[in-house]
Amino acid sequence: MRLKKTAMALLAALFIYLSLYSWNLRTGQLDRLATYTGLEAVKWVVMPGEWVYGQLTDFWDRYIYLVGLKQENDLLSSQNDLMRLEIMNLRERAAEAERLADLLDFSPVPGWNVDGARVIAHRTGPVAALDSIVVDKGSTSDVHDDTPVMTPHGVVGRILRAGLSASNVLLLTDPNSRISVRGQLNRSSGLLVGNGDKKNLNLKYMKLNAPVVEGELLVTSGLAEIFPPGLPVARVVSIERSDISLFLKVEAEPLVDMDNLEEVLLVHRTQPTNSTSTMTTTNSTAAVLANSTAATRER
Fold this sequence. Notes:
By secondary structure, this protein is an alpha+beta fold. The chain has two domains: 40-105; 112-298, Beta Barrel (Thrombin, subunit H). The chain is built from three helices and twelve strands. It has helices at residues 2-27, 29-105, 275-298, and strands at 112-122, 132-135, 148-151, 154-162, 167-171, 178-183, 189-193, 201-204, 217-220, 232-240, 249-254, 263-269. Mean pLDDT is 78; it is low at 275-283 and 292-299.
């Protein structure tokens, strides 16, 4: 029974097929229908694949582009850092050239000449007891104890101890420093004494009736024959008169920023000094060293 049904179905299918085939041969309708339906089928099968392919390709291209862009960014950033470093270096050189030009423009006092030196250390001495610096010139460069040290802006101090290729400079702010000065305007004289780092200087032994005004410039007097006369040292900032003292209480501030010294001038005498002045400077240096040693022991 089942075989009969199957045979009948096959015959019916064959009849329908032959009928459609014959009809298609006469009209061509099935060919046109197959063409249209095939194109639509291809469209809906191919389009999603094309879309996925396009998205993947676009993503890959953008990824590669971003990777290249990041590498280029990193390269530009590195070049930018190098250029900044070079600019900083050039600015430092320009500032150094300006400072050296100021040193070269300084005109020494007649009978004296100057020599440049670099500061290589700050705040030296036993337990940093001395307010001092170290310069890169010593006895091999004709530097001796008590050689004056200054900048184009004013006096820095004097050589405390000269080595072979380096020297210790006692700054005028150190309590052991003593410089004979006079007012540039009124010519009143006194002894300028250091009072410690970042503190004003004391101008001692100026008489009560001595003419002096705030803001007056103090210059070296040359009386001790250590410093040449006329070098700027400090500026008067305060004046007080006392009923129980024979001298004025005068304070002054240095003209030079001691904390930021990089280059200095060493002032050399071109004329020989007498034996008395030489003995005085030697005793002065010995006294400073003794005072610093005593201060160290007290600490």
